[in-house]
Records
---
Amino acid sequence: MMRILPLIPLALLTTPAAAQTQPSPARLKADVEKLVSFGTRHTLSDPDHPTRGIGAARRWFAGELGRIGEACGGCIEVANVARTFTNDRAPKGVEIVDVLGFQPGRDPKRVVIVMGHIDSRVTDVMNATSDAPGANDDASGVALVLEAARILSREKFDATIVYAALSGEEQGLFGGTLLAETARERGWTVSAVLNNDIVGNTVGQDGRRVADRVRVFSEGIREVEPLPGQLARRADGGEDDGPSRALAKAVDGVAGKLPRGLDVFVVRRFDRFGRGGDHSPFLKLGYPAVRFSVGVENYDQQHQDLRSADGKVYGDTVDKMDFAYLAKVTAINVATLRRLATAPAAPASVTIGGALATDTSVKWAPVPGASGYRVHWRRADAQDWQQHVDVKDAQATIEGVIVDDTFVGVSALAADGTESLVTFGGRERR
């Protein structure tokens, strides 16, 4: 059974953090070093020890979120969700606690989520006592979440932003499962999930340095779609335009407007080959979710006992990280969160028509709070939207555009023109 744990009392918090407008490499490094200082953050480590283990790390993260919230006059509410999970990596059962910060928007039920996992491990996934620094995997993601909260907490949004540190990723994606199921149980409309896991290094296994891009993984055909739905998407040509792929394309567009930023490498699979992460449980429930990960990985620095052997140094330590790079990944997350939390929700469905005609008709479900809509289209051999027109009503006709040769999608617009994700248009289903 899921338990909702109490808020962190503000009386226990210390001096508010200073406001920031850009991600700080120094602040990110300090947060990663603090997380490493807990020795191990293994999910099965002592949750009650005051200075070592996952419990101490979670309490520190909650305290940091609380300080940020206090600095903005209580704009972030800190709470935990918890539930016991059991599997072969937790045979005696373990209480999984996700630490959450809620920055309420004008619509408390619509959320955008930014998250990383706070747990760490060494070579033996059951070793809960040896030092497991987990600097890049995934203190980098947790530090990014805190930095995003510092920057965005001074702003007001339409959607609620959820800042999350998840537990139990290494033992079986427990924390992602808990938060995804919490979203479903509470009836949240989830506009986006940004999972940040291994986002702080630039030197790979073979010594190559990749500091100019970040990978963003997304599904095309939705896992949640039954076979008839998948076949319908195939018939419409929408394999590259599911909600999570639309999110990845939006991230790419946002990143392209950031000065001296990173290229977003949109990887057209849901995660690295044969692997997974905490966004996976969200995909199982139909929510748009992507994973950020570095442009190149070093496997000697993941899930390794701290040691040297045959001239190699193993272990996930702070000195292997690139905090200027991590700041750039953070900036992309911040800009994406800002856009999607400002915009309305995406249209729930879009249908198109125009068979045996020279015009294409488009209609969609009206979006509460939308000031208008943007109808996008592109040639059917292109991946990115090429043209658009803005309209006020929830229908449009694109004259002279033949539906056989064209893909169409629609986004919702805020009063200032901020745009939601694009919902792909297909045939009306009866």
Note: Confidence is low (pLDDT under 50) at residues 1-19.
---
Amino acid sequence: MRRTVFDEDHEAFRETIRAFIEAEVVPVYDEWFAAGQAPRDFYYKLGELGVFGINVPEEFGGAGLDTHKFEAVLYEETARAGVQFGGSGVHVLLALPYLKMLATDEQKKRYLPKFVSGEEMWALAMTEPGTGSDVAGMKTTAKLSEDGTHYVLNGAKTFITGGVHADRVIVCARTSAPSAEDRRFGISLFAVDTKSEGYSIGRKLDKLGLRTSDTAELAFVDVKVPVEDLLGEEGKGFSYLGHNLASERWGIAFGAYAQAAAAVRFAQQYVTDRTVFGKPVAHFQNTKFELAACQAEVDAAQAVADRALEALDADELTPAEAASAKLFCTEVAHRVIDRCLQLHGGYGYMNEYPIARLYADNRVNRIYGGTSEIMKTIIAKSMGL
């Protein structure tokens, strides 16, 4: 389909990323998959390539752009190659918006140059055991010390993507108890140094998919967090979290569309090469009809994802629109990838084939960033229901 969302700069970036993936990722990806994470030094390579600095102001070592279109290219190219860039997506898509929105000039000078180079990898810690989508139910606390120099952090987090390699983690914690009128009251955000005493990484979680992305449990026992590492104002954390949900959900939507497009590509290549009953699988009418139907769904998802991207760059993407894009694109990807795996037959169930890994990677898209059920609730509310 004809697209207008990307220009020559984006396509040049695409060529660079595609070559980088072929040279630096594809040859060692099986090793990453077996290890359950990308190696730490890979993030330095992404830093050198400029991936982390695209949306960071020039004064802090970045390119100074204000767009998500280069991230969109990354989604498409990693999906096309059947690979993941470890936990780096959280570093850019989730952590950076908070730093740009909340960090003081002093904090930006401390944080952003190392962010751009990959010297400090960042993660975001919201979810706790037993809370899930109910962020307001968090139990982790951060109490201000008597001398007012630091907060004392206690609690635990789980499902923290990038948590194993992270050097700094944006931790959501209660600085005040919830009020009777508002359960969301009293949450604050902190840029916690993972080398702090009392900070520990628990299990590296064994996930169904996204195997090269390190996901961990975190624990905090009397961790001292300097007041200089409070992000934004105390007690306003929940409103800050809501501010970035649209971009997070767009990212999941666009990534899901890209996975669906990649699945069609993998399936088309496989059925063209695979011969049964004396002729390629692609020659059977059922194969043609299945791939045609999948392509039609991918075309629709691409249009939705691109429209959301343009709205996001224009700062006009509403929560309901982001929820709609996420719901639609993730459901399309679920259907398309399942059908494309079926066309692979038994080989589609083998992890050596990218379609099998894609099938597992895709499943979380309807869960994280807000489940499909939560997306429907948001959309329904916007309809006045």
Note: The longest strand covers residues 150-161.
---
Amino acid sequence: MLYGLYFLTCLADNPGHCVTRVHLFSDEVQTPQQCLSVAQPQMAAWQSAHGRWRVTQFRCGRPPKSDGTRI
């Protein structure tokens, strides 16, 4: 199973505007624990490149069931 990092990002100056982002890992990440161990550096790198946005929630696993802001 290919694990993904699903994280909710909101604009810093408009916290009501949020978008769910996805980062799919390669085949080396095969367990939830491995996913969580690499999640923080991935989100930190994303945050550094996108200064207007803030990561508010995250999880590792399969795609979310809804298209809304629920992750």
Note: The mean pLDDT is 85.
